[in-house]
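Data availability excerpt. The first of two example chains:
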Amino acid sequence: MNELAPPPAPDIVAAAQDLVLGLMSMPWGQVSPSVYETGRLVTLAPWLTGHGERVRWLMGNQRADGSWGAPDGYGLVPTLSATEALLSVLRRGEDTGVRVEALREAAARGLRRLSRCLSGTRLSLPDMPAIELIVPSLVARINDHLADNGMSAALVLPAGMSEAPLAAVREWVASEEEIPQKLLHALEIAGDAAHGAAAVHVTEIGTVGASPAASAAWLGDRGPSEPAHPVRWHLEAVVRRHGGPVPVGLPITVFERGWVLSWLARAGIPFEVPPEMLVDLRTAIGPAGTSAGAGLPPDADTTSVALYALTLLGQPQEPGSLWAFETPTHFCTWQGEEGASVSVNAHVLDAFGQYAALRPEAAPAYAPAIRKLSAWLREQQRQDGSWDDRWHASRYYGTASCGLALHEFGGAEAADAVRAGVEWVLDTQRDDGGWGRWTGTVEETAYALQLLLFAGSGQRVTEAAARGYAYLLRSADVSDGPPLWHDKDLYRPLAVVRAAVLAAMHLAQSRSLVVRLAGQV
């Protein structure tokens, strides 16, 4: 027996069915904890259940260099948040079960790391939601702590960033004028103006902006005095579900269900969907589309993936709500978006293409948009064959999203672009068989494998897929992977990632040669 052979393959159909049924038991979604969001709750809601656990969780996640979070600029926001949170605990003199000396040392290491990072000339920040507001707000809070301790040294803002946008937003919130729904997701940056802001609408489940930090900021000092307040109840439910630390965004009900169902159905895995889940998904899509979850604005990404999933499952719904997101050149994620996302446009292409394929009589109405999307996606392809997306840290996600959509619905004009994407995936496989930006991960390997197995061909593709499949068999626990999805902080939608991995494994298992070769890796 080959001792290096991968372990036996799991029962993909049973695992997929369990995953789908599990969505019903956790309707708000399954999301990894966030350093940024947890740090904001430590500062804003020390009265909330699990305060000590949050502080200890932050302490346990600090890196040896004093930072928190991922490399390549992704660590700035979480390091600012965690450092400011520890300084707030020290200022209040709280007993959190952590020695004061340990808190001081962790905060000092965070400050040293931030000082080096912000004073350097090579700081490159990723395109994260509200980063231009979050960074100035946290730098100002930390500098206030330093001033209160008689320290003249202060953190500086990154080059090209200023306090002006933050000041404008705070004036806007204080004016009681209507606030854009997308801004509510980061309401905590408004400081005191967020407390009870009259223009804020609390959702039926008690969340503000689908964000624990935004919810706590709006609740303010009413938290300890009004334990029966709906927002307090919502926050208590979130922290109890996660054992203290909290995710950066919750709920993500529609987002999670759309992605899970579409990954599994696209790969051809047989599974049954609870009828009420399909009804919920259909009714969530209104004339303006649907949002990822309660408290967030409608967006083209969630809308298109939900529509695509429904069509794959034999419940097609006319995708006319997506026209609200069309611009002269592409489709925006939401109205007023700065920048553009290739994955969003790939998913809109999926939704239009799949609907037109199932309803040929409707195809002429969508043909111009399909051609437009295909052309725009081809224009966005990098010279090396990959695609880089603003909603994910890994190019494997963007490349799989664009490559799969173009392969299926882009027409003959897209063949060269798809081929180039496949070649980039082949060229970037790691020695252990996996794929990944910083290290090999099951998530990124799943994206790479799907593109190879759907759109690739030939011996080289087969051999690479076999090595990738063997890697997944050895590393199938998705809970251990790094967060890679963009929000205020990087996050990991656990069920979505699990579905992507199951889809890749199912595709590999459908190719007997891939499975046989994997046993020899």
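And the second chain:
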Amino acid sequence: MLGLTVLLSGCQGLASSPFGTPQEDPLASAPPIERGLDAEGLSTLLSAEMAGQRGDYRRATLGYLAMAERYRAPQLAERGTLAARFSNDVLLLEQAVSTWHELDPAAEAPLRLLSGLALQRGDWPTALDRRLTLVEQGLHGELALFAELALESGTDPLPLRERLREHLERAGADAHPHRYDAVLAMAILEAATGQRQQAERRLDLLARDHSELPALWLTRAQLALEADSPRQAREAARRGLEISPGDPRFLLLMAQAELMLGNVAAAEEHTSTLLDEHVGNQELRISLARLYLEDNHLDAARRLLLPLVSSDEPPPAAFYLMGLIAEEEGEIDNALLYYRQVSPGSDFLRARLRAAQMLIEDDRLLDARAFLRIERLRHESRFSELVALEVELLDEAGLHAEANALLNRELSRTPNDEPLLYLRAMRAWEQGDIDAMERDLGRIIETNPDNASALNALGYTLADLNQEERLDEARELIERAHALEPGSPAIMDSLGWVYYRQGDPERALPWLERAYASMPDQEIAAHLAEVLWALGRHEDARRVVEQTLLRYDEHPLIDELLERIPELAPTSSTVNETTP
């Protein structure tokens, strides 16, 4: 729902991705360097400029940041940020943006970038704080959209609601030109945390003074749909259309409400209006077809898709959806034809997976395997992925011996296929055959010494085995991987873990903290908590464990850690805290 709404609105939403498409000179738009410099400063900046022109954006960024801190010049930090955006290193970018923000706390751009970076690593409270800082400076924080995205991500809305409540209760908040945006965000979060009546009252009060706001009726319609109140949603969307005639978001909401009421013909009228206003928009037509499919209105979805599959350049997603429709109607062979026509792209593997699963569910395992074999011949560039797909399906069917035989057979034909060697190595690790895993990873590294994934996997495994005589080897492998991919959280986690295994928790800690800040998964959390505990920072360790227990429904690595260190367990009242 949210993705389609954003598509129709054409808005940019939250801060754009910090990575853009490289231009011929990505620093051409950067602010000029105007201050006088001493010899060292001039040399450093010239080196940074030359590094940027050569595409060595990491070195360029570090040069600019060093001089920005030395001269307290936000313009140099901004230039460093521009270079970092092209480095594909999230941590380097965050370092650059943080320096820029420190040197110019009132600047809008670094705050928006910091908010976006916080979202990338799943730190929604920090992202909200950054946006509220923008609001407090009189700028638009896009808080309502932020709240919707937070709910879409599955994050816990309660801390966000309480932080936003503090903001609204602060003296002077009433005078803010965009206060309505914070009120809408608050209503969204209240509804999501069970305070629907309070949310409705808040929206009623807002409607008294700001009934002309399309965003008000948009929020009311969305909340009504989520509450399974399609008539209220339809009325709110109708009011929105009166204020903003032709607004595609309200037309979409009207269509959704009519579908919930069972009025398919009325819904199609609204979607037809949308398509008339967006002629040639294939993505919109596909998104609307998905909407009808979600409610199992197959004929309506088919009517939207048929013009696409018969066009000169049919989008792959249209064939995939037509396959789903045919499969739902029991037309297996027809569905197979559609799935086969999905060309390489985002839906390619999903279509082959669905086709093979469909055949297996119809007791046609041999046909499924023949289909995947033919697809490997038709699409040589996706050979490894299709083999891996068949291995996965065989494993799911309990045919592990057949899966091993397939993998061994294909590797006998293509002995240096790195993805398949890596897959076999990981299967060996799961089966406890470390020697076999090491052979396959070693072959990858021998053929391609710059395969960071293989270097890290082997190094981490050796570190995790904690065999003292091989820890130096493990560290060397991981350090080589880090030199190749310095921004990888997984590799930073491995570095921290091998340093800890070598008895140096203080050296391990900053690597694990950086890895956790960028990718707070439970494996990194378990490592970080254990190292914090070893350093005597017991409350910090418990806090990491508590956050992970709340974030994941299943947490076997944390459970294993708690078995070894029971004192790490947070209090049950904290972990079982319920949302009001």
